[in-house]
Write a structure and sequence with these properties.
homodimer, about 300 residues, mainly alpha, Farnesyl Diphosphate Synthase, two-stranded antiparallel ribbon
């Protein structure tokens, strides 16, 4: 097992344990809703976003235990977005992370409510943990960052633009617009929130923001490439689903070789942004390399 | 125009103006999402919840200008819940506030996203306004209160229980369970948040909580009665929609006369809870009377 694999497994275990506590197996009520939430929230997943929160917090010398609720909130928001995006009214996906999607198992009504529950619970977690934070200004800044990244100028806006672009072949600028908002904003928020809670000053926050922007976009380009190339056993989704939906993707607009080239450039820029950081930023560097290698190595 | 009508109109104008600013007519992007959000958020509505926030803040001697963002956030959350509840996968309602529902006009995908956008924006507003709050502890408490009332143990949980109960004739205890969570929790939160931001102490918060619980339940019973009795011109919804859906309602379980009796009792209890408050609580008393009178007077 590589150093990164061991690191990711360790962090994933912390995150999974914390997430499970927020939605207990045997809630007083209503069982079926909790079951639906747990199905999607605890059903695997690489936990890239929460790992980025913890890794960035550690990279700036912070105590990642304090960042854990923020990591969980971001993963809840990510999971809600997957559940809603998979709905028949949206992308109509039936497979996710190698399992049937939430609405296929629990029906559309509970899938909508599970997403709503996760989004709301994320902010409950933020409000609860911030109440005990010795530095309220930091906590507010992080909460605001997450809300804005998830909202109309971030993830939800990106998803709306994505849906509007389906069926037409959008220009490269529009594909980038969608990716930056739909996926990039929350990945960037994960990095910036980890840094904020870790106590980063402005001088550290700037290069970390650059790192977050680069891997945010690289991550989505890599995802597009995997969707176009990899069998569904690797992606956990139905094969070539983006192509079926005529989704706005980098490979569709600039071709696979150029998309891979762009991902590699973004990796270089991400690594360059971390040049001033010491060994504690190694997991961040490894994560960036891993994101791109998954899609671009033979 | 009665004193209450004048009061409600004045507060409604403040709230409507503030809400409109959060979703400008001409956003950079994506137009259609903002249009869908504005359609539901600014398409009328009695604004009971935000008025309760402002009225309670004023009743305890607070500056209701500081409570305005909280009032707006609560109305955004209420509007999101209506949009999602109306979806074909949920209650499949086509009329709301006398107009076609969001998904009928904009399609299911944008309706889901509009709801997601409103829920997220509510917390953006809370995080933004709290950041400038001179008393962060209060702001956190209010934000947490709203998040919990909207979540799995509140509104979303109530909606899940409501859907699970459709088609069966539930026991009175289950109807009350659903109402307390689905509608009551947010109405109670409106009262408690107004009190919190207004600077209420524990001694004031306790009776106001009692008031909020009583009018929360009375409001939903009144709504059930109106749905069963009033023509759709009054409710703005399709007539007898609850009955069609075999919804868990008070009239369905205990009959109309007993439901009206219960609403009147709750009004008495709400007024009794406010006994120790001075004239500044008059709008709260009038609101309670109005809620019950709408449904229970000949």
């Amino acid at each position: 097992m590589s150093a990164l694999e061991a690191y990711m497994r360790r962090q994933r275990e912390r995150i999974d344990a914390a997430l499970a506590e927020y939605f207990p197996v045997d809630p007083p009520h209503p069982h079926r809703l909790f079951e639906a939430v747990r199905y999607s929230l605890l059903g695997g997943g690489k936990r890239i976003r929460p790992i980025l929160v913890l890794a960035t917090c550690e990279a700036v010398g912070g105590d990642s235990q304090r960042a854990l609720p923020y990591a969980c909130a971001i993963e809840m928001i990510h999971t809600y977005s997957l559940i809603h995006d998979d709905l028949p009214a949206m992308d109509d996906d039936t497979m996710r992370r190698g399992r049937r999607t939430n609405h296929v198992v629990f029906g559309d009504a509970l899938a909508i409510l599970s997403g709503d529950a996760l989004l709301t619970e994320a902010f409950t977690v933020l409000a609860q943990s911030a109440a005990s934070d010795p530095e309220p200004a930091r906590a507010w800044r992080a909460t605001r960052e997450i809300a804005e990244a998830a909202g109309v100028r971030g993830m939800v806006g990106g998803q709306a633009a994505d849906i509007a672009a389906q069926g037409v072949t959008p220009a490269l600028a529009m594909v980038e617009y969608i990716h930056v908002r739909k996926t990039g904003a929350m990945l960037l928020a994960a990095v910036r929130v980890g840094a904020t809670i870790g106590g980063a000053d402005e001088a550290s926050l700037r290069p970390l923001t650059r790192y977050g922007e680069c891997i945010g976009l690289a991550f989505q380009i890599a995802d597009d490439i995997l969707d176009a190339e990899a069998p569904s056993a690797v992606t956990g989704k139905a094969e070539g689903r983006d192509t079926q939906l005529h989704k706005a993707t980098f490979p569709a607009v600039i071709g696979l070789p150029a998309a891979k080239q762009r991902a590699r450039e973004l990796l270089e820029q991400a690594l360059a942004a971390l040049r001033g950081f010491d060994a504690r930023a190694e997991p961040l560097r490894d994560l960036a390399r891993w994101v791109v290698a998954r899609a671009c190595e033979p």
